[in-house]
Design a protein that fits this description.
Length: 214
């Protein structure tokens, strides 16, 4: 009796190649969501870094300008004719070397705020003593900040900026001791999320200047 032998080289069932399946709609949507999410995170991180750099620049600039002004004029200077303010607008570069220069677009000298692109405003603070006008400090104004920028600019309180205090629109000057003070100050002076003007005050003694004489 003959037995039929099946060679192992020829399997009974031939395996057919599987048809390659494309990406499903849900997979495509998931990939797009991941890419968009990663891009959003990168954009936010970039924006935060840019804002932090702008705040650091502006805090340093205002501290340099305020300190230099007081070094140039000393304490209780003759404030007749607002000599410090006049000199600042005539030649701001000497008050903020490395920060203040002539704007190449407008050819107007000034110290430009990175957060807003607007020039820093300079106000000489004076009082009347014995019939004489006496300079007692300077106030440097930031215009059109957002409430968030106000919080970031004054972060930690005015003493950390080497400043005597701050006021909005008009005195009296307030000493902002910590971030809670800063947030309350910025919130109280905001309108529609914007700060019209925030003034940072520097004095020769580092103390809050007396209220201006009416």
């Amino acid at each position: 009796m003959n037995t039929l032998a099946i060679s192992p080289c020829f399997p009974l069932h031939r395996t057919l190649p599987r048809k390659r399946r494309g990406f499903g709609l849900l997979e495509v949507i998931l990939v797009f969501a991941i890419v968009i999410g990663a891009a959003a995170v990168a954009f936010i991180a970039s924006q935060n870094a840019t804002t932090a750099a702008s705040v650091d620049h502006d805090r340093t600039m205002v501290n340099v300008v305020g300190s230099t002004a007081l070094q140039m004029y000393g304490a209780n200077w003759n404030g007749a004719g607002s000599p410090v303010q006049t000199e600042f607008y005539a030649a701001p570069a000497q008050f903020g070397p490395g920060f203040c220069a002539v704007d190449p677009n407008t050819f107007i000298p000034g110290c430009y705020v990175t957060l807003t692109g607007e020039p820093l405003r300079f106000i000489e603070l004076s009082n009347t003593s014995g019939g004489n006008i006496v300079g007692v400090g300077v106030a440097l104004a930031f215009d059109d900040l957002t409430q968030g920028q106000c919080n970031a600019l004054l972060a930690g309180g005015t003493p950390l900026m080497g400043a005597a205090g701050a006021y909005a629109t008009s005195p009296p000057t307030q000493v902002l001791h910590n971030q809670n003070d800063v947030m309350n100050f910025c919130a109280a002076n905001a309108s529609g999320g914007m700060e019209s003007s925030i003034y940072i005050v520097y004095t020769p003694t580092g103390l809050v200047p007396p209220a201006p004489t009416p």
